[in-house]
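Budget justification, computational time. The allocation requested in the original proposal was used primarily to generate structure tokens for proteins on the priority list. As evidence of use, we reproduce two of the resulting records. The first is shown immediately below.
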Amino acid sequence: MTEEFVVSLAKNAMLTALLVSGPVLLLGLIAGLAVGIFQAATQIHEMTLTFVPKILVVALTFFLFAPWMLRMLVSFTLQVFGYIPTVAH
């Protein structure tokens, strides 16, 4: 096992984590920004108004992207399992 292999594996792991979490985090950020703008415009500062829309958007995004996220994670896991014979020699 070389340094290049370890760095490549870590890079792939971080990229996979970023790709899998990206859509959920991005749409949650957009929902939070929209709620913040709405609260600033209407001066309604209800605490539940910030959480409920974000939770709904994150849950909906998760359910919409779950098959794609699962395929990405399974692909990465199979790739890592494929490296076992190379590392174990």
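The second record produced under the same allocation is shown here.
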Amino acid sequence: MTDTKPILNKPLSCWYVYIIRASDNSLYTGITTDIERRFKQHKEKKGARFFWARDPVEVVFTEEFNSRSDASKREAAIKKLSKVQKEALL
């Protein structure tokens, strides 16, 4: 018989919503579990088509969530904001 005890102290998965300011001063919003890795991918033009025509400059905003679902909902809400509203959020 195998031991089926629950795993204690298992780290929760953290999801982040982030905003990156691009070289043309536009703002890109996304989600990830690793902001540094994702920023590097954007710099290497791997991933979001948004960065094929502009360069990421800096991460200007982050929020942490315990689930992908919550992070995705917040990402969608931020994407609906105007540029002025996003700048105010920063």
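A brief technical remark on that second record: The longest strand covers residues 56-65.
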